[in-house]
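Hello support,

Our group uses your service weekly, and this is the first time we've seen a run hang past the timeout. The protein is Phosphoinositide phospholipase C. I'm not sure whether the cause is the sequence or the server load. Input pasted verbatim:
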Amino acid sequence: LLCRLWRVDWIERIVNREEYMAVVFFPGIQEDDNLQSMVVGTVMRKIKSRTWKKQRYFKLQDDCMTIWYKSKKAGNAHSTFSVSDVEAIREGHQSEVLLSIADEFPANRCFTLVFRGRRANLDLVADSADEAQSWIRGLKKLIENLENMGEREKLDQWIGDWFKKADKNNDGRMNFKEVQDLLKMMNVDMNEHHAHRLFTKADESQSGSLKDDEFVLFYKMLTQRDDVMRVFQEYSSDAQKLSQSDLEVFLREEQLEGDDVEPLAKQLIERYEPSDTAKLLKAMTFDGFLMYLGSAEGSIFNPQRRGIFQDMSQPLCHYFISSSHNTYLMEDQLRGQSSVEGYIRALNRGCRCVEVDCWDGANGEPIVYHGHTFTSKILFKDVVNAVGNYAFKVSEYPVILSIENHCNVEQQRVMAQHLKRILGDKLLKSTLDGRAAVGLPSPEDLKGKILVKAKKIGNLEESFNGVMEDSLSGEVSDEEDAADIEEDNLHRESQRLSKELSDCVVYCKSVHFSSFKHSRIHSKFYEVASFTESKARKHLREAGESTFVHHNSRQLTRVYPTGFRTDSSNFNPQEMWNAGCQIVALNFQTAGEGMDLNDGLFSQNGRCGYVLKPSFMREPEKRFNPETPQRRDGYQPVVLTVQVISGQQLPKVNIKEDSIVDPLVRVEIHGVPLDQAKQETRYIENNGFNPVWYDMLRFTIHSPELAMVRIVVEDYDKTSKNDFVGQYTLPLSCMQQGYRHIHLLSKDGTSIPPASLFVHIRISELE
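Update from on-call engineer: The timeout came from a worker crash unrelated to the input. Re-ran successfully.
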């Protein structure tokens, strides 16, 4: 009865899906002038450059989810994008493209749509300021509503999307040919007989086609979760529902949510149970149980680790810091485009250390680009503007501006002027208390501050006696990575530094690194050494990992990709985190394993860009060695068991219409050398829609505090390299146990709903 009530409710909401989604997705749409204007449509200019400005007709579809646009000359050809793909809306001349046409179109008619992942921005100019505001306000409301959407509405959205895709002739019905096409789109390889059996079963009107409510029934049969039903029935006293008591047993014994689970059980029923009748009975139907397991609370990532939960009052050197290499580059290192967009995107991903390579420019204005290459050039002042505007949008904790300085004294003075004028009070110009410091301040102390990391004249202490010349000679930057030449063979010339720029450097003085012994005796807490990945590995081999860890317990170290990585590829950052290196700089523009691990590590602690290192890496006397984790005090290895149960609606990776995914799942452990491991499930032939494995993978982990878990889905190919389907990466310390869904991410790190894996997780101490 409960399930039947739920189905009736569902059908009523789906029968006119377009109207329903408009009402649920945006209540009061009829009264909202901005949305009504968007539904009618508007002609706006799409801008790609100063010379490419084309008129396009933009319109919000009736589902309030899709923006449709086309050229008047393009015939029937059109483009669409989903509101869910839009990450932000920038008003005015807030992109390089719109800045370039600022003299032609006023700021109040311009806006930029920023998409998730690495998709290019969409720069638009409306015919009037009112039209621009109508779209800006309307889109912001739609995005806000989408973010507040419940699991129930999301499910309706997915079902409606499939119906629209299947109904090719737009008659509101789906014939069997359309069903077969739908199955291919859904990554299902189902024999014709079985498909026809489901179709006939759903065709209750016996009309030979499925109308809306029959399609809901078909979808439910197609997406039947036998794997979840097994768990549901195991804990249900009557195999029909979970009483509150049943749910409490499940939460306590299976999900390991602790002993006092009564409040949580009540909360979950109230939040996820779709049937009001079941709520009155303090029970959860199968649909409610499925919604809970598909929610954030039922996901593999512990929600309690999402917000700021770590101590933020320790010295900067006690944190891993999300860091970007050659932040200005959007592509490769030799011919790629330089753009302030690189800084905006990195900062909006929580990056807290960005790099600026400064060279002498025309008209006395310093420029930023990858020196001695064909990469394009941008103005230093535009970079500083972007950093000033976006530094604290997603995190209030300090940003480090890592400056590689190749400018003459005059242009260095201009750099200092821009930093002070544009950043104002955000720029840290002196020690926090105005007196000589004895140690690095904390992220908490430095909230809202931008620190400059660069060469400095003399010591920090000397800057308090006021005796300084206008400029002095100093060493050239140690961060020149041209072809990764050995420093010993590199001819170095002294460089004159401007006092004005030098004075902007407080807690992050760039220095040449001699040796760990020299550093232990002579180095100051505010000195920062930088190494290419290959140099860092050389020091690890020669001095030992525990020596590097000890060094990093006292001061900051920056590691960046070798100059040979002209394709902007990344190294695996885990090796450097194992040594306690804080500023491990990656090419944020390049998707792959390196950025997956970076995104995974910094997905915790409010995505603020700072993650506290384990205590054994912060205390110098501990002498932790990642090569021999079993020798440290408090050593307690764990066993991680991952049962990969099933997959749901995995995306197609091959554009060929008849191609169906053959998925396999690989679980990788990234951590200290002893923990590096990977295991795979078998592959399931021709089923990307609902593959089932029940394969068990087991790992022994010796340093769980440093371990990252990366779960990858691939399309198996026996003749060539497997194709990437999706991934999810998180710290072991953030994993929830029990039955969990893993919501997969694309290669770009953006979500690809409803693609997921269903797993069972156990973490136990090694006996």
